[in-house]
Amino acid sequence: MASARSSNFGTAPVQSVQELIKEPIPEVPQPFILDDPQPPILSPTTPFPLLPTIDMKHLIMSETTDSELEKLHSTCKEWGFFQLVNHGVRSSILEKLKSEITEFYKLPSEEKIKYKMRAGDVEGYGLSVMRSEDQKIDWGDRFYMITNPIHRRKPHLFPELLPSLRDSLECYFAELQKLAMMLLGFMARALKLEKGEMEELFDDGMQSVRMTYYPPCPQPERVVGLTPHSDASGITILLQVNGVDGLGFPSASFQMHLLSMLETFLRMVSNGVYPSIEHRATVNAEKERISIAMFFKPKFSAQIKPSNSLINPQNPPLFKQVSMEKYFQDFFSHKMEGKSFLDHMKIKNEEEEYTA
Q: For the chain, how far is it from start to end, CA to CA, in angstroms?
């Protein structure tokens, strides 16, 4: 199969893992094999704690708000992720979306490749972005798009999707935007931020979506579906499309419907009270896995820094201030290559500043 450039760095030897395994392969090609394979998350002999659950109905109902808010706060501090139940997203929307995404990945390769990532871009369909020549390739095909603000949507991506998938995604985006803003509002209350502070950062903010197809792998222990990472967003909400688990966190097992994860920007706003947990995706030897993740970031004009409500002489800021605009400029120009975003943002005993 012809090579396909995934970014300004490196060239992937295949365009699609899904296409690679259409014919049985005896072993995984070398570009996918990890130099230091990750230990399995789940063990048949080791008990794992149940994933914490937050009930949105209990947060909303006045008689249970305080107790559920306390539970939300402790869960965010101790875990950094949780399962959402009674979240209010209509089941008809979820089921329709699951069906449409499944059908998308059944399309012929020549149809999916119409949306392929272009040179130097991170949006579109294909393999994960490669940032170095020796980087190992994730065992999965992903379709990543910025969805909000609407004027930032790439004209050759979302507007060109099949109408049924596009309409299902639009309905899902609207529902999750309401859910995300409610969650962020409750987190602000739990942190005792000034009223409206969190909403001001995230209302009509940057939003993006990643649909990922993880094919079965003949040697799942030697690859990774998604490299260990924490996302540069405020919160991420994940939906398992076909019920096959594979999102990897330390010390947790998953039976989930919607999963909410706290990410980098929320860690900064909370001045480290809430962690951003590194996670990865594993793959299955026999079953495909499909997921859709939505990322909610501050608005493009926002200044990201620890909340003034949390700063005092006994609790100084742990992170520098950065504008969303400068963050994206540096990220897409690869100035952060080889060093995590939070490493750049931590305040150290040095004179350099990373500000807008």
A: 44
Does residue 276 contact residue 345 with C-beta atoms inside 8 Å?
Answer: no
Query: 84 - beta bridge partners?
Result: 54, 258
At 130 the three-state DSSP class reads: coil
- Cβ atoms 199, 213 nearer than 8 A: no
Q: Which residues pair with 192 in a beta bridge?
A: none
Q: Hey, what are 72's tokens?
A: 């939300």
Selection from 178, 169, 226, 191 nearest residue 38 by Cα: 226
Helix residue spans in the chain (DSSP H): 17-20, 56-60, 65-78, 91-104, 109-112, 163-191, 197-202, 264-269, 324-332, 341-345
Tell me the three state secondary structure of residue 100.
helix
Tokens 């039976």, residue located: 255
Q: In the beta sheet, which residues pair with residue 146?
A: 208
Instruction: Dump pLDDT digits (tens) for 26-43.
Output: 889 988 998 876 655 554
109-130 tens-digit pLDDT: 999 999 999 988 889 999 987 6
- The helix-helix angle for 163-191 and 91-104 (nearest 10°) equals 130
Beta-bridge mates of residue 126: 142
User: Is residue 11 left, alpha or beta, with left meaning phi > 0 and alpha meaning psi from -120 to 50?
Assistant: beta
Please confirm whether the linkage preceding 149 is cis (ω < 30° from 0): yes
The DSSP letter of residue 287 is -
Both tokens assigned to 121 = 């871009």
pTM, 2 dp: 0.87
